[in-house]
User: What shape does this take?
Amino acid sequence: MSRIVRNWREAATLMLCTLRSNNSKSYNDKATCSLKKCGTVPHKNFLKQETDSRSVDILMLKRSSQSQFLPSVYVFPGGISHDSDFSQEWIGLFNSCGQHLNFDKFILSNQKPFEENRPDESVFTRKRNVVSGVPGEVGIRICAIRETFEESGVLIAKHVDDARIFNRNPSLFNTGPISGSTFSSPVLGQWRERVIHEASQFVVMCRDLNIVPDVWSLYEWCNWLTPVINPVHLSKHRRRFDTAFFACCISGSSHAVEDQRETVYSLWSSPELIVESWRENHVGLAGPQLYELSRLLNFENAHALHNFLFEISTHRAERWMGVFCVCKDALLELLPGDSLYPENVNCNKDSAIFRDETHDELKTMFPKRNRVVYSRKPKQGRLLGVDCNVQLHNHVTPRNIIRNQSEPSVE
Assistant: This one.
């Protein structure tokens, strides 16, 4: 059962990054072959071997064309939370490696006082099960790890014996960023099928294999709440999600295998190549994915990204809900910090803004910009790019990326 709070469901997604080795490739061979078969030709750079060891690779999955939410676009692995992610069974499993004392590292000093089911309570901190004792910060990380395992087959987990190091050396949390661990076993394929069909089997699998989800290596990155207004039809969304985005850095890319249900292709590639392929209309992306990929463009390598994650780990990620502005020639998803973003936003009320000016005219009138840009004509709701020129609080500012409205699109 997924967690439903007011008018949205809680979800978690994982931006899984790795430092590419000199002889690695920037794509999943199986995925590329499938792309060719279906007639969708990826950007030429997707097909070449990468030799730049400085770059970051990130795991992305293409959603099925049959998906009700974001069909046929590339996304980070993730999905909706389940009651079992906050089950009391996790307490016993973590206690077996002495981790009950180290849950305190996830409780940040800048979080708001807790009130159960308060609509503005952070998805990271909201207490779902009073009895279980699993902190929200831990349960939502378990969700991100479980969903990544279901959708890609990549399991971020540690053997219980290896996890005990954090109990013996709690100072490790303060000395630098923690790298993620991937776990492999010949029986993972069978367990994956069981977890896909019943999320509560994830804790059963971990107990059977004597492992724990590597929650310590997941760093808060951001928090997106689906807007009330749909950017394409300007109608209410049937589905809304309060999604926690986590980032995790691992030492080498792990083989990903799409589940052929929700995901049909998988690839490891650099943010630069993904964005370039989107710009050239070879792959489809959703607004939040493009925004976060454009933030990653600021990091020369995974080590710089990892250090940044450690620097911001003492601050709770802010929740953002876009508010749409309908102007003469574009749809603008306004984000906090934008001059046009309303001072008071109700997360449950329609709050679209209508302006007679063009986008360029609005940029002159309201100089501070933090927005995702969509087209109005000839195809309404087509993603055009990210436009941001403000300094974000405790985060990195995305690179500006805008493409021409007249270009053909795969979206």
Residues 21-54, 109-119 have pLDDT under 50 and may be disordered.
